[in-house]
Design a protein that fits this description.
194 residues, alpha+beta, 4-stranded mixed β-sheet, 4 helices, 34% helix, globular, Imidazoleglycerol-phosphate dehydratase
């Protein structure tokens, strides 16, 4: 079974995170940051990954450390759960509309970390949440998974809708990439390793 559990404790945060790539059981997410909880719930639903997160962070300062550390821990768990990546599709991409907004995600579980984030988030805050942290979250996930991740908002007006379309697109593209394909023998690379 493709699962991973990680506890990550720093002077700024304490994160407990577990994933099961092959279970769509209901997720439990409690980061102390309402907007992040909402986005992670959407991600879990659309990726069909069971995701459980408990985070305590120095949110009295701001949400930055918690958002980034949840992303780091999610990336570490994804990398561990994927193991040698035998027989996975490796690539995934999708467009997701959210009302007037259209988000796009393409990713490659190549073992090479890179993030392209092209999203104009015109509203700097949604409630208490700094929208610039969305890019920080995806950077942390991509670099700790070893994932080449491209995210783009093609158009839209509402910042919440733009971000939501990206999290849903990320989930759906990741589901495509991690799906085991019986036609792929070994890893999906001419190098023989990912």
């Amino acid at each position: 079974m493709r699962t991973a559990t990680k506890t990550r404790v720093t002077a700024e945060t304490s994160i407990e995170l577990s994933i099961n790539l092959d279970s769509a059981a209901e997720s439990t997410i409690a980061t102390g940051i309402g907007f992040l909880d909402h986005m992670l719930t959407l991600f879990a639903k659309h990726s069909r990954i069971n995701l459980n997160v408990k985070a305590d962070g120095d949110t009295r300062v701001d949400a930055h450390h918690t958002v980034e550390d949840v992303g780091i821990t999610l990336g570490i768990c994804l990398k561990e759960a994927l193991g040698d990546k035998a027989s996975i599709n490796r690539y995934g991409s999708t467009y997701v509309p959210m009302d007037e907004s259209l988000g796009f995600c393409a990713l490659d579980l190549s073992g090479r970390s890179y993030l392209v984030f092209d999203a104009e988030l015109t509203n700097p805050k949604l409630g208490d949440f700094d929208t610039e942290l969305v890019e920080e979250f995806f950077q942390a996930v991509a670099f700790n998974t070893g994932m080449n991740l491209h995210l783009r908002v093609l158009y839209g007006k509402n910042t919440h809708h733009k971000i939501e379309s990206l999290f849903k697109a990320f989930g759906r593209a990741l589901r495509e990439a991690i799906t085991i394909n019986p036609e792929i023998k070994g890893v999906n690379s001419t190098k023989g390793v990912l």
